[in-house]
Amino acid sequence: MDLKSKKTGIFRKKTSDIAATLDLSSLLDRYPNELSGGQQQRVALARAFVLNPQILLMDEPLSSLDAKLREKVREELRSIQRELKITTVYVTHDQEEALSLSDRIAVMNGGKILQYGVPRDLYFKPHDNFTADFAGRANFIELDGEPYIIRPEWFELNKTTARGDVEGIVKSASFLGDRTRFVIQTKTIEGKAIQTSITADLKTLDTNSLEAGSPVSLNINHKWYNS
Fold first, then answer.
1. Does the pLDDT at position 197 exceed 70?
2. pLDDT per residue as tens digits for the range 110-131
3. Which of 151, 203, 192, 140 is nearest to 168 (CA)?
4. In sequence order, what are the beta bridge partners of 156?
5. Structural contact between residues 152 and 195, judged by C-beta atoms closer than 8 angstroms
6. Bigger pLDDT: 115 vs 171
7. pLDDT digits (tens, 9 = 90+) for 31-81
8. Which of 2, 9, 29, 168 would bridge with 184, disulfide CB 3.0–4.6 Å?
């Protein structure tokens, strides 16, 4: 086998492997105009990876995929990137993509970097309200005259007003499958409406009876000082 044939064989094997990873094997014989927008997006990703570049720039690469396929391709992207050890700059407005794919994140607003760090720091120790809001849902409130950021899951919801740090009334409840998100109109924190969420399968709290108008209380299990 000469060198050219050997290289061709390696390239075909690599193309086949990446096509299988991105669920494109059955589409290799199709023309571009026979592919959907999502399929064309995955082909573009495959073409980039198969060239094994030293640096890869991705600008919203998963934006045209449906939710389930986006999650699958996101996991495969991370796996391929780690396997090939390609330095990748990934641009996205999707918080979940940023947190799950990145080793480090630069949060930008108006052309300026507001915070640069590992995903956990951006989520648990944001430097400002913009970063906190990008990294996930957040409540911006004052306690004893000091500004704090509290994530919805940092509250513990009680079905009685006698046990919590903050009293309130349920304004709305949204069942989201793996969790239920509540908006609570508080009585003691400037009368603000606070977002809180709990997992839907908690054994310690039956949320089915919590409807708009139900009196509740909240315990604050964690908060981050917003300096």
1. no
2. 999 999 999 999 999 999 999 9
3. 192
4. 219
5. yes
6. 115
7. 888 888 778 877 888 888 888 788 989 998 888 788 888 888 888 888 878
8. 168
149-166: buried (b, 16+ CB within 10 Å) or exposed (e) per residue? bbbbbbbbbbeeeeebeb
What are the domain boundaries of the chain? 3-103, 138-225
Q: Which two tokens stand for residue 215?
A: 């009196």
Out of 1-5, 59-63, 116-120, 193-197, least confident range: 1-5
- What is the architecture of the domain spanning 138-225? Beta Barrel (2.40)
Whether the CB-CB separation of 14 and 50 falls below 8 Å is answered with yes
